[in-house]
Amino acid sequence: MNAKRIHFIGICGVAMSAIALAFKRRGWKVTGSDVGFYPPISTYLQKNKVDYYPGWHPEKMTAEGNPDVVVVGNVASSTNPEWLYVKKNNLPYQSYPEIIQKFFIKINSIVCAGTYGKSSSATLLTWILKETGHNPSYMFGGLSLNNIPAAELTDSDWSVVEGDEYKASRWDTGPKFAYYSPTHLLLTSLVWDHADVYPTERKYLQAFKKLLKNVPKNGLKIISEQAQMVLDLKKDKLVVTYGSKFDNDYRYHAINQTPEKTTFEIATKDATYAITTSCLGDYMVENITGCFALAQQIGIDPKKIIQAIHSFKGMKRRLEKRSEGRVVVYDDIAHSPTKAMSVLETLKKVYESKVVAIFEPNTGNRRPEATPWYDHAFNAADEIIIPRLTKVKSDPHEAPSIEGSELAEIISKTHPNAQYIEEDDELTKYLLSQPIGTVVVFLGSHGFRGMIEAVVKEKS
């Protein structure tokens, strides 16, 4: 790989920042731009001395000459000055899934896809392969608590990537995972999501069905029991299933959880394996089982898989405990009602104390058609608070997005203690006034404008 200059429009996205660092470590000159820089990504870029600047400035992008390639994130609107400069001057450009396809995907291509669980699964599989000497190229959408980079380019024949179903780019509304050519597919879950891209459940499922068809005949499909039921894959001979039911090829059971660790067993037709992990949640038990299944199916010794699982610490912003003082503070990227429900059910199962959730949905879950998804989604929380929502780009041809006060009213129809608090200072003070032992959890893909850090600072 010849080192060149590469610029990222929208570098502060989780995946974009990871890819940028991977190129920097391979000797490329990397620059980037964005309008929103929030921890932990902003600190991650600063720590690794990546050159980036706020705003869109073609003169800064080309200060050392035109880049050899420009990676265009979905944050770039049609009027973005850097994007306009790229097109006007015919500069080479690609979306980040095209970059993944060109540089990261290998002969043995492991893709982790699904509505939820794909980031954690891709991170754990990466960790297992690294710990067992496979040295894969990889990319996952988050920051590992094991302190490995979120993306890396290697000379191995193996790759592990998170397969996102969201639209690939401004010029391609198909899913990102369509670029990744899986030979080994882990499908974690299927629940209609991203209504802004998939207006019906049928269209959402069609994207995944097409992905499954792209797995070659000599490939492998590791499918959760939930996804298998949705897609009816019983006749597919390439499918290996996992879940809690007895008819799965890999079955998890005997789950025991405390705030410190989770223990459970994975049973196959030939053996039963005892698992211990610091990760919490039944959904993490399911993710770990899927990763165990795939790793064993590609020939890795189960003892080594179990050792890697035991040493796996999880990811930042995936039910990450930020502090434990007068109140316990958690942070999770759950930006949909379904994902939030899983997190809240876990916390209510592990803790006996009051649970207060602060929730900010992503763009797709602010569409009017997403309204039914909120029914009873937050029942495991004692209180649910909607903060002032981050502004999103609106399409004049579509109904306006749901705003914070309206969302609180929607949730109030099936939850007795939902409220909207517009001012950040007021919300922070309210959280700081909670009784000793209260569990406070921030749910959403944005950074909550420093509120998490403010609560952690006061309560640590």
TrEMBL record:
Domain Mur ligase central: residue ranges: 113-295
Mur ligase N-terminal catalytic domain sequence ranges: 5-103
GO biological process: cell division; cell wall organization; peptidoglycan biosynthetic process; regulation of cell shape
UniProt keywords, alphabetically: ATP-binding, Cell cycle, Cell division, Cell shape, Cell wall biogenesis/degradation, Ligase, Nucleotide-binding, Peptidoglycan synthesis
Occurrences of domain Mur ligase C-terminal (ranges): 317-445
One Pfam short name: Mur_ligase_M
Cited InterPro entries: Mur-like_cat_sf, Mur_ligase_C, Mur_ligase_C_dom_sf, Mur_ligase_cen, Mur_ligase_N, MurCDEF_pg_biosynth
Recorded GO MF terms: acid-amino acid ligase activity; ATP binding
Full protein name: UDP-N-acetylmuramate:L-alanyl-gamma-D-glutamyl-meso-diaminopimelate ligase
